[in-house]
Design brief:
The protein is mainly alpha-helical and about 290 residues long. The chain has 16 helices and four strands. Helix 7 packs antiparallel against helix 8 and helix 14 runs antiparallel to helix 15.
């Protein structure tokens, strides 16, 4: 009996949280052809095999038809941060095998909402200021920069502004800009994972960093903004495997130049990266 109680209490909490979330978001959703935005986003989760024929995907066409009416809902799903109680409940329920709940757990629409931003492209640009503010939250910054990447080139000024962040967000923002310059859209790659509570598929977005992306980062060592130059130097230090050997060596002259930048933060970051990826060149240039 106690075993069932341990399962029943978390299940009840999940039901309450899920129902409350449904009530809060139901009225704000736009519709297209009699289906809510959530239903169309669910189509992104269900797609078994994606290809680059993005425009012909039914949810993409539906979201474009709904237009900017989608923006408040998409932003709320990207920003959504479950409470500690909800996270704990999901963790507890995920560990039991007695019941297979009909719920997804957390993050059901986060990546699908990013795909929605990508479908809207420049129409989603009004969200850029709020996504920029979200980059300051360490727990959400990666999702924020990925969302700006999904919007596309109109988000570049906001990614440049995100380089003001002195944590890893700046390096991520530089990478997003580089990917836009080096890669045709869509800029990300995709896959699926299983939801922790019901085992159903959930869309997951990510990216692979190519040598061409790193080459574009190198060019930004000469960007007019000191924040972008510093973030570019920091980002280069991340990509030093065999895949990037040639492009890393080609970055050495610009890194040496950056070590003499007028901005102290740029000098420090460039010197650290140069010592990391090419210590011989740093020694020859007298950079300690």
């Amino acid at each position: 009996m106690r075993k069932w109680l341990k399962v029943a209490v978390p299940v009840l909490l999940v039901l309450v949280v899920a129902f409350a979330a449904w009530l809060l978001t139901r009225a704000r959703e736009p519709e297209y052809k009699g289906r809510s935005l959530s239903a169309w986003l669910e189509e992104y989760n269900r797609v078994a095999l994606w290809d680059n024929n993005w425009d012909n995907m039914p949810p993409t066409a539906a979201i474009r038809a709904m237009g900017t009416n989608c923006l408040p809902f998409l932003l709320s799903r990207i920003k959504h941060k479950p409470s500690r109680l909800t996270a704990k409940v999901v963790e507890l329920v995920s560990k039991q095998q007695l019941l297979k709940l009909p719920f997804y757990g957390m993050g059901r629409y986060r990546f699908a909402s990013m795909a929605g931003l990508n479908a809207l492209g420049p129409q989603a640009a009004p969200l850029c200021p709020e996504l920029l503010a979200l980059t300051k939250d360490p727990s959400a910054s990666w999702y924020a920069t990925m969302s700006l990447l999904a919007i596309g080139t109109s988000a570049i000024p906001f990614l440049e502004a995100a380089c003001e962040n002195t944590n890893q967000t700046g390096a991520e923002a530089v990478l997003m800009i580089a990917m836009m310059k080096a890669t045709p859209p869509p800029y990300f790659s995709w896959g699926r994972m299983k939801a922790p509570l019901n085992g159903k598929p959930i869309l997951v977005l990510g990216y692979a960093v190519s040598p061409e992306d790193v080459r574009e980062i190198t060019k930004m060592l000469e960007h007019p903004s000191p924040a972008v130059r510093r973030a570019s130097a920091e980002a280069l230090g991340r990509y030093r495997g065999s895949t990037y050997t040639q492009v890393s060596k080609s970055a050495v002259p610009l890194l040496i130049k950056a070590c003499r930048d007028t901005n102290e933060a740029v000098r420090i970051s460039a010197a650290a990266t140069l010592r990391l990826i090419y210590p011989e060149a740093a020694a020859e240039a007298g950079i300690k």
